Amino acid sequence: MAVARRSAGSLPGIGGSQPDWDRLLYSNLKEYPRIVSIRRHLRLAGQIQLLPALESGEETLIGGQAVMEGVMMRAPHSYCIAVRKPDGEVVTETKPLQKVSEKYPLFKYPVLRGLGTLGQAMSLGFKSLQFSANVAMEAEEAAKATKTPGASLMSLALPGILGAAGPSGGSSPKPKKEAFTNGMMAIQLIFSLGFFIFAYKLVPLWLTTQIGTRYPAVQGNFAFNMVDGAIRIAIFLAFLWGVSRFKDIRRTFEYHGGEHRVVFNFESGKPVNVANAQSFTTFHPRCGTSFLITVMIISMLIYTVIPVTTFAGKFASRIVLLPVIAGLSYEVIRFAAKRQGTLLALLTAPGLWLQRITTKPPSGDQTEIAIIALDGAMKLEAAQGGRAVIA
């Protein structure tokens, strides 16, 4: 693992011969448990719900994901997360990544390879989101510490109590603790899965059942599942439109657009830089948004051939068949990305239209972050002897 910080310039208050008691105090306070506000938890929950729409996973291709104020880029055997702090400093984390199909050969086969790749992409995306959330919270708390009235007076009294190093040296500050720990993220994941099943499985099924009691024409298997699928898509669109109104989510969508542009730039063979990347579109066929809408369309077709009639049976089948539908949808997206203009590729067209919501034109600074992440991933890929295959 490699973690690096790039400074945007000389930061005020750093250096000099006098001890910076405020900084020492803040460093020692960092070792104590931090309270994460409900607002921050809700912001993170919204980002997790968008995770499948913001990531793109393919073992042999360059892909990435937008995170909080940053981008994660992955190559076949490496990945790099780049996050920009409010002061302009860029924090990166680079790690090697083993392909699922190399670790488990079973995932080399169609449909199964989709499950393995998507599972790894979601896991990596979750870790990347946790990293960016912790960087964001560290920056927020550092900014608050510099604005707290009376901090200098308190810092003169508390260094000895908290164990801060004084002018003559002594103990060094302990490593910082993460605000969003693995336990907190696990709770967020459970909440997100529950919300997904409730909003996209239970609610559409219940509403369609209620409609069927009033309109007998909807009770037929084909009509029932078409209505059920339409309601599911409507809920998804309403959710995307709603969260896109929030400023921080909109900025994530801008980073998402920057990630797409940089991937296009890389795949074109042109030198990867901000000027070249900004000339490309923000709509990419391998985007997670395209995958999600493809899942919803294919699920409508598959449910029509499942011979279950009870509410409980239909609800159970929607959960049990989710891996199969996800694997099939992955194959469709993979095929469409390589064979534009075919009939099957038309299934991915709604996903490209929907990217008008989930991607926004990025600024040059946001595109630069995506380039930094790609550069970090490719450097480690080259150091490991790997080679990225262009779609």
Question: How would you describe this protein?
Answer:
- With 391 residues, the protein is an alpha+beta fold.
- The chain has one domain (2-11, 18-170, 177-190, 197-383).
- It is 59% helix and 8% strand.
- The chain contains 15 helices and 5 strands.
- The chain has helices at residues 21-29, 38-54, 100-103, 112-147, 151-157, 159-162, 182-214, 221-243, 247-268, 274-277, 288-303, 311-320, 322-338, 349-358, 364-383, and strands at residues 2-6, 63-67, 70-75, 78-84, 90-96.
- Strands 1-5-4-3-2 form a 5-stranded antiparallel β-sheet.
- A hairpin with a 2-residue loop joins strand 3 and strand 4.
- The longest helix is centred in the N-terminal third of the chain and has 36 residues, at 112-147.
- The radius of gyration is 24 Å and the shape is globular.
- It starts with a strand and ends in an 8-residue tail after the last helix.
Topology:
Layout: E1 2-6, H1 21-29, H2 38-54, E2 63-67, E3 70-75, E4 78-84, E5 90-96, H3 100-103, H4 112-147, H5 151-157, H6 159-162, H7 182-214, H8 221-243, H9 247-268, H10 274-277, H11 288-303, H12 311-320, H13 322-338, H14 349-358, H15 364-383
Antiparallel strand pairs: 1-5, 2-3, 3-4, 4-5
How helical, in percent, are the residues? 55-70%
- Report the principal-axis shape: globular
Count the strands? 5
Instruction: Name the beta content range.
Output: 5-15%
Estimate the mean pLDDT confidence.
Answer: 76
Low-confidence stretches: 8-35, 150-175
Pick out its properties:
about 400 residues; alpha+beta; 5-stranded antiparallel β-sheet; 15 helices; globular
